[in-house]
Prior knowledge:
Residues 3-63 form the Heparan-alpha-glucosaminide N-acetyltransferase catalytic domain. This is DUF1624 domain-containing protein. Pfam families: HGSNAT_cat. The chain crosses the membrane at residues 42-62. It is built from two helices and no strands. The chain has one domain. It has helices at 2-26, 39-62. 77% of the residues lie in helices and 0% in strands. By secondary structure, it is an all-alpha fold.
Amino acid sequence: MADLDIARSLALFGIIVFHTARDPAHFGVLEQGTTLCGTREALARLVAGSFFVIAGAGLVLAHD
């Protein structure tokens, strides 16, 4: 269970890093579309997907 908590923490950290870069573009501080191209888009999908998988695994384990 500790491994799952560590993985969840890393996923949350990834979300924080992504939004630190994405929010300035969303609010007009950076050029629109700067953070959603190429590698950054793949990183966003990887972070979000891993968070949902880890959260789902935690829910399954909590109800066993």
